[in-house]
Amino acid sequence: MLKNVQIYHMKILDFYAFRANTKKESLLGKLNKQALIDLLMNLTNKDLFIKQELLLHLDHIAALSLAIDTLETLFTSGDVAEKNAEDSFRWVLAIAEEAVSSTFMARDKMKLFNLIFRHATSALYSQWTDWRICLLFATAPLCSDLAIRNKLEAYIRKRQKILWSSKHYIDERYQLQELQHLLFESFDCKSTAFLYMTQNLDNSRFRRTIIESAIENKQYGEALKLCFEGEAKDRGHVGLMRQWRFLRYAIYEASGDACAQRILALELFREGNLQYYEKSRELIEQTSR
Question: Is the model's pLDDT at 125 over the cut of 90?
Answer without folding.
Answer: no
